[in-house]
Amino acid sequence: MAMLGKRRPSRPASGHSGLVRKPSSKAEQKEGDSTTLVVERLAHDGRGVAHTTAGKTVFIDQALPGEHVDVAVHVTRKRYDEAHIKARFTTSEQRVEPPCVYFGYCGGCDLQHLNLAAQRQHKRDVVTELMARQGLTLGSIAALDGSSEHYRRRARLGVRVDGQGNVLLGFRAPNSHRLVDIEQCYVLVPALNELMLPLRQLLATLEAPRLVGHVELLATNEATVVLVRQLKAHDQDMARWQRFAEQQKISLGTWLGRETPVLHWNGARNNTGPALQDVLNLEELGIQRVKSLINDPPSSNDEASKQLTLRFFPGDFLQVNAEVNQKMVAQVLAWLKPAPGQQLVDLFAGVGNFSLPLAAAGAQVAAIEGNPAMVERITANADANQLEVHARQADLSDASTVQMLLSEHQHVDAIVLDPPRSGAEAVCQVIGRYNIPRVAYISCDPATLARDAAHLVHAGYRVKQVAVADMFLHTAHLETLMLFEYEG
């Protein structure tokens, strides 16, 4: 198997940090009199930004502000170039040694060369700048940071057979479909990282590894799960997978088929998989259960009274960083202060990440989701936690549908928005007509958040609180939370 048991090439002492791309002779042509540039700032995606003597913008991989670098251009465009470092003449004080040996080869975690404090400040700066483009000025920004660099509880690894017949397991290279073969992943939680080497060894023994599309790893408090994307059944290989699951004491599922794969839980009776649950600690959320659907709340000594369990299934959305997700939910609860008698609407509710804690605090919660399966999941989770949540399905990308929904809910005290990357523009375009006092918006894309925030401000809302959650350590991705209050 490629690179198994072999030493990886050593990282250059400076400059390249193991860059994947090699410039062609054409790309190495100097622009003007020199390719030496001074890095001015970071772009939103974490690349360094510089300008040539002719004024053309250059985006430079792994370059940091203040550094003097000699670069090679690997992509030339009309308005800007994309380049990587050939030599670095000065080094930023913010530069650190990347903790992962695959940095520069693997396309993930591309900010490892920047210290953690600077990473987090950069993310806050990105939010501030994007809001400023919409004419919005922000005050202080709270930081919701995790304590561990080994945070990722879910990951999808590609599987591919190269031209020499070696089976590769890993992630894609930067800006490429090429798979980078890895033996470990620095940001995975330990239970998943420990599976990497056994997985590689198993894949090398398969008779038909080309039938494996990818492998998904998932860790919860109750189970460690491996989900295999199997394009076509292969009895001998499936027996090998089953032995692997027994040896590693994990739950094994197989998505079988090409067009419409069906999930099979290997070795499970009635094809019933493990109870996959996310757990929210009520004490850490700063709330106590004050309402129960069926019975009175358990006593304070009962563990069931101290947590909420959210059941989910493979394919459902789950935040990859459990600790930071807990902090985000706590922040929203602190902003909204849910209490008995309040009426709250949770849009893009998922499996109930915000709906259930709001209901546990006593609020009357309506949870709206576009995916019918998620509506079923919210209802089941509310019942399992003895909470009352009214869940329904609706297309939240359609403004007329949103208008109809909001018209049905009178005297709403607050709305929670947790949309996908595309944002919640339809909601924000009509929400101002209903004078809803507060809106808590959770976004995984600051650009669409800035767009939607402008709609809310135009409708009479004001930004009252902002927090940036470092959900994806060592990457330029972030979660932003905003509290809006209606002022008319």
Automatic annotation (TrEMBL):
It holds the Pfam family TRAM. The lineage of its organism: Bacteria, Pseudomonadati, Pseudomonadota, Gammaproteobacteria, Oceanospirillales. Residues 1-35 are annotated as: Disordered. CDD domains: AdoMet_MTases (cd02440). It comes from the Bacteria. S-adenosyl-L-methionine binds at residues 319, 348, 369, 418. Its EC number is 2.1.1.190. This is 23S rRNA (Uracil(1939)-C(5))-methyltransferase RlmD. SUPFAM superfamilies: Nucleic acid-binding proteins, S-adenosyl-L-methionine-dependent methyltransferases. Signal peptide: none annotated. Keywords: 4Fe-4S, Iron, Iron-sulfur, Metal-binding, Methyltransferase, S-adenosyl-L-methionine, Transferase. Belongs to the class I-like SAM-binding methyltransferase superfamily. RNA M5U methyltransferase family. The active site is at 444 (nucleophile), 444. It is an enzyme of class 2 (transferase). GO terms for molecular function: 4 iron, 4 sulfur cluster binding; rRNA (uridine-C5-)-methyltransferase activity. Gene3D superfamilies: 2.40.50.1070, Nucleic acid-binding proteins (2.40.50.140), Vaccinia Virus protein VP39 (3.40.50.150). InterPro entries: MeTrfase_TrmA_AS, NA-bd_OB-fold, SAM-dependent_MTases_sf, TRAM_dom, U5_MeTrfase_fam. GO terms for biological process: rRNA base methylation. Residues 28-87 form the TRAM domain.
